[in-house]
Amino acid sequence: MTEKNIAYLRTSEAPTLPPPASEVGIRGWLWKNIFASMADYSSVSKTINSILMTILTVGSALFLYWIIAGLLDFTLFSATFSDPEGVKREACVVNAGACWPYVQAKWYQFMYGFYPAEEVWRVNVAMFLLAVGIAWLVFPMPRRGLVAALMLTAFPIVSFVLLNGMPIEHDGDLGKVFAGVWFPLIVAGVVGAGWFLARDGRLGEVAAAVAPILLMAAALFGLFAFLPLITAALDIALGTEVVETNQWGGLTITLVVAIAGIVASLPLGMLLALGRQSNAPILKYTSVIFIEVVRGIPLISVLFFASAMLPYFLEPGVDFNKLLRAMIGVMLFSAAYMAEVIRGGLQAMPKGQYEGGMSLGLSYWQQMRLIIMPQALTTVIPGIVNTFIGLFKDTTLVLIISIFDLLGMMNATLTDPTWATPTTAYTGYLVIALIYFVFCFGMSRYSVYMENKLHRGHR
Amino acid sequence: MTTTNEVDHTPEERSGLAALVYDGKARSLFFQGVLAILIMVMIYLAVQNAAQNLADQGKEFGFGFFDRPSDIQILTTFGTWLVGYVPGESTIFDVLKLSVANTLILAIAGIFFATILGFLMGIMRLSSNFVVKGFATIYIEVMRNIPLLLQIFFWNAALRLIAPGPRDAGTFVPGLLQFNTKGIYGPFPITHDGFYLTMMAVIIAIGAVIAYGKYAKKVQEQTGKQSPVFLISVAILIGLPTLVFLITGRPLTIEWPNFVSEGPVLRRGFERGVGSYIAPEFMALFLALTTYTAAFIGEIVRAGIQAVPKGQSEASEALGLPGGLAMRKVILPQAFRVIIPPLTSQYLNLTKNSSLAAAIGYPELVAVFAGTILNQVGRAIEIVAVVIIVYLTISLLTSLFMNWFNNRVKLVER
Questions:
Q1: Percentage of chain A with pLDDT > 90?
Q2: How far is A64 from chain B, CA to nearest CA, in Å?
Q3: Which of A49, A304, A315 sits opposite B324 (nearest CB)?
Q4: Of A33 and A377, which is predicted with more confidence?
Q5: Which CATH number covers residue B338?
Q6: A279 and A402, same structural domain?
Q7: b/e A316-345 (16+ beta carbons within 10 angstroms → b)
Q8: Contacts with B, A 328-367, CB within 8 Å
Q9: Which of chain B's residues have a Cβ under 8 Å away from the Cβ of A56?
Q10: Alpha-carbon distance A80 to A22, whole Å?
Q11: For a FRET experiment, which of A457, B193, B218, B255 has its CA 20 to 30 Å from that of B286?
């Protein structure tokens, strides 16, 4: 081989050509992401695949177009936006689209139900506190532990006083639950005794072992005992009047039920999950039976149980507030689901974590609090948030035992003849769906964000 | 006790009561005993109170009221047809039976279609095609973030909006299915003597197909020869019953819905009790349950497929398996192991969610039995207990079946 035989020899480097137009830019993107999957006809099965993809793509695109165009038309182009003459249904009935004046007119009910208008600032203050608390916990802010503790203890009391008003003077309703003013004296005695025993093990080891239990019991009783005092102080400061729970409604009730369920289901679920993992047979099977029975029946039957069957099992004459009964039903229901989620996290813990805790000489509760639970809860954050989302959506079921939550309130306004048009119902459904979507989608996005943040170390 | 004792106490030094307090077993027994006593006291109090309350109201505990006739009007559904419900003649026990049948038919139809739609959505969400993927993503995110009850209300209202009025008829499949706001009307098969032979032929054909499938698989494993299993199975399944049906003299007539378009205005529309009929409430619930649960199933399927290592799909591509076959023979069987446990709980959720029918008046267990009958006879304890037992039984049976299925597809490890 000599150089003579070579017909052509490149002496300089060829310029780099731009990528083909089918690979970059809009055309490239379209080809890669849409048309490539429909254009392979090299064999029979690939042809079938491509044809199916074509049908799916065209079908999806048409369906999306149909939905989006329909929604735009309904909400904007043929909607009624204002009702300047105040003719209500006549203003909306002429257009085929959404009836926005209806939403405007009923917005107060959607938010607060039949809460008296002059007292509505109380709801707003409670909601504002809630929003600030949640925002504080969600975004990276200082002292989140303190805020979380306040949200779990002080906030429920404050918001109860704000929403319900002074409970002591009032005879019926929720007042009865908190009516024991004589209680603090007994509790002060128990607390004092427990504290005395716990100090330096003054009465020997037995007392030192019993003291924590006494203190815990005292704290529990104390919560109930001092509640009336705290609420009374708050009440004097705020000067509130009682608003019966049957006047509450709309988004207020939805949030009250959902937050009560969320706050109660986590600790209850943890206890049930630990109970199910325990070696003690009575404890274990009590937890198993509770969890499995509650998970096996629909929430509606739990609510029916709470509203129709529970009164039979209480002492004659004792009656609960209806909202409280529904809330207890929702709490127990979500606790059972939460227990199963947390059990998944506990089972995912390597045995070495328990053994490590034991070898450090930690007690069972110290192990759980310091080692197991923080890790177990972190691994199941998506499951926990999913349970919260499910709980939030399930609060709509209280309308079946005639508590007017957001959906129930909206449904109730549909019977108002002054706003009866063919599109009123759909306008209402759309608005309510949007509100629920914002809450649930927000929660699920936050869980994704938390997951990414907490798992960064493992990648 | 002095302070020196405090500093160096070790378990050995403890004796008597102190040793007992610090003994793990004794402590566990003590707390369990407390728990057991608490539970027993609660049960005792509950029973006492219930007895007292019942006595105050002059009621007795018992299920004797099941034999009473029930005169409530119930929407014509699968259950009323199955039980042959006649107001005033049928008993309350019949109402229980028909409401359980309605729950089950709703759950089975919902589970069947939600699985198909859910798998479709889950696979679509993993597509490389932007439009298909976007559609599935929007579908899943919207559906699972809106309460089911709201969706049921929406479908219930929307179906009545798109359907023609009760004196008119629209049609899905010309000549086969017709509908208006009163429901969907279709043909109804009426069997005559000798039809059971055809039914038996169907059962025999199914048995034969299963046996042939096993035989064909054995032949393939031994000799490597593939038999046209699908074609022969279809031939057996269609051929045998048709043959028996023709030989026995076609013991089946089809009753068509009767649309009355003349006569008094109030009598116009579809004649009641002629042909088969699906209530609009059923359709609203069915659509809501199916589309809602399909979104959750879609997410489960997506997660399951993503849990299969990428090497598996690359390996099947290297073997020359086309996309569909690789999905069917390699990816999905492995994904199934991840999918089945959460899929089971979705099936159970769908069954339990069917109780939301109470909100729109479809006569299933909670709506008609825990609702109407409870209001009528007022036996809260018995009725709620029966409802809970029925749901627990359904949950248990579904779990058992799905566990059995799970064990079949589970990866067999050492």
A1: 14
A2: 7
A3: A49
A4: A377
A5: 1.10.3720.10
A6: yes
A7: eeeebbbbebbbbbbbbbbbbbbbbbbbeb
A8: none
A9: 124, 129, 132
A10: 46
A11: B255
Q: What is the number of residues in chain B?
A: 414
Do A226 and A356 sit in the same domain of this protein?
no
Q: Which residue of A has its CA nearest to B43?
A: A313
ipTM field: 0.80
pLDDT of residue A148: 79
Which H or E run contains B188? strand B188-191
Give the best residue of A313, A333, A436 to mutate against chain B (max B CB count within 10 A): A313
Q: pLDDT for B78-87, tens place per residue? A: 777 777 777 7
User: B160 at the A interface (CB within 8 A)?
Assistant: no
For chain A, say whether B121 makes contact (Cβ under 8 Å): no
**What does the pLDDT read at residue A459?**
40
- Asked, for residue B248, whether it belongs to a domain, the answer is no
Q: What is the pLDDT of residue A458?
A: 47
Indicate which CATH number applies to the domain containing A324. 1.10.3720.10
Average pLDDT value for residue range A15-30: 80
B17 closest CB neighbour out of A206, A279, A437: A206
> Does one domain contain both A228 and A278?
no
Domain assignment present for A33: yes
Instruction: Please check whether residue A80 is in contact with residue A101, taking contact to mean a CB–CB distance below 8 angstroms.
Output: yes
> For residue A45, which residues of chain B lie inside 8 Å, CB to CB?
322-325
| DSSP H helices in B354-379 | 374-377
Q: Which whole-number Å values give the CA distances from B360 to A297, B70, B381, in the listed order?
A: 20, 21, 24
**How many structural domains is chain A composed of?**
3
Structure confidence at residue A230 as a pLDDT band (50, 70, 90)? low
A positions 12-71 inside 8 Å of B (CB)? 32-34, 36-38, 43, 45-46, 48-49, 53, 56-57, 60-61, 63-64
Tell me the per-residue pLDDT of A257-301, one tens digit each, with 9 for 90 and over.
998 888 888 889 999 999 988 888 888 889 989 998 898 889 988
DSSP letter string, B192-237? -TTHHHHHHHHHHHHHHHHHHHHHHHHHHHHH-PPP-HHHHHHHHH
Instruction: Using CB atoms, pick whichever of A43, A282, A411 lies closest to residue B36.
Output: A282
Average pLDDT on B172-182 reads: 74
CB A56 to CB B36 under 8 A? no
Q: Decide if B129 touches A, using CB distance below 8 A.
A: yes
Identify the bridge partners of residue B278 per DSSP, sorted by sequence position.
B184
Taking the Cβ of residue A298 and every Cβ of chain B, the question of whether any pair is shorter than 8 Å is answered with yes
Task: Kindly state whether residue A140 falls inside one of the protein's structural domains.
Answer: yes
pLDDT, tens only, B68-109: 887 777 777 777 777 777 777 788 888 888 889 989 999 999
Cα of A236 to nearest chain B Cα, Å: 38
Provide the residue range defining the domain that includes A381. 102-167+245-456
Closest residue by Cα to residue A238 from A118, A122, A124: A122
A337, part of any domain: yes
Rounded to whole angstroms, the Cα distance separating B354 from B103 reads 7
For residue A435, pLDDT over 90 is answered with: yes
In a domain, A371, yes or no: yes
For chain A, positions 422-441, list CB contacts with chain B under 8 A.
422, 425-426, 429, 432-433, 436-437, 440-441
Q: Report if residue B30 sits inside a domain.
A: no
What are the structure tokens assigned to B39, written together? 């539970």
Computed over every residue of chain B, the mean pLDDT equals 82
Q: Rounded to a whole number, what is the distance in Å from the CA of B244 to chain A's nearest CA?
A: 37
**Which ranges of A177-321 would DSSP assign to H, the alpha helix?**
183-198, 204-238, 250-277, 281-296, 299-304, 310-313
Instruction: Please say which residue of A224, A240, A256 terminates a domain.
Output: A240
pLDDT at B348 over 50: yes
Q: How many domains does chain B have?
A: 1
Q: Are residue A254 and residue A140 in the same domain, yes or no?
A: yes
Residue pair A205/B18 in contact (Cβ under 8 Å)? The answer is yes
The number of C-beta contacts closer than 8 angstroms across A and B is 189
Q: Residue B8: which pLDDT band, with cuts at 50, 70 and 90?
A: very low
Q: Which domain holds residue B333?
A: 78-180+280-409
pLDDT band at B120 (very low <50, low <70, confident <90, very high): very high
